[in-house]
Sequence to fold (186 residues):
Amino acid sequence: MRSATTPRLLADSLPPWWVLLITGIGWTVVALILLRFDYTSVSSISILFGLVALAAGFMEIGLIFMSHGWWRLLNVLLAIAFIVSGIVAFIHPGSTFLALAAVFSFFFIFAGTFDVIWAISARHEIEVWWLQLIGGIIEIVLGFWAAGYYGRSAILLIAWVAAFAIIRGVRDIVLAFRVREIQHPA
Fold:
């Protein structure tokens, strides 16, 4: 009985396959726009940031009703900060991009440092710990390369977001066809 109901439950719990296909195509189009490296890239990244900030703000509003005490105040403050940031990103995309590019190289340095520390601490538990170590070193090098020079930070930000969009697009397209196989078996 379990084997008969499990695939149906799985198929019913997944989103429609065509939604994944459309989002995959959308991410791929975003990547192509970003890789033009012009003002459209700047606007696209600012709009993406604005959408993410607004979504985070609305999630914080939802958390307000589930939290108590100081956490509730923190959720209110975060909701306001995220929503204001999202609105500013839509109104001033150029300034938003400048701020993101300025911070992005430092993010790489901190993330790379964390990855190196994590890799070294996990070397006895994880066989491929060295992959995380190499990734962390690359992040640190890219962060220092881009730090202090807006042009390099901007290129790094655009390239990184474009790479993420390509990976996300391909993943969603592949998932779409896998979900279609599950939902509509031959």
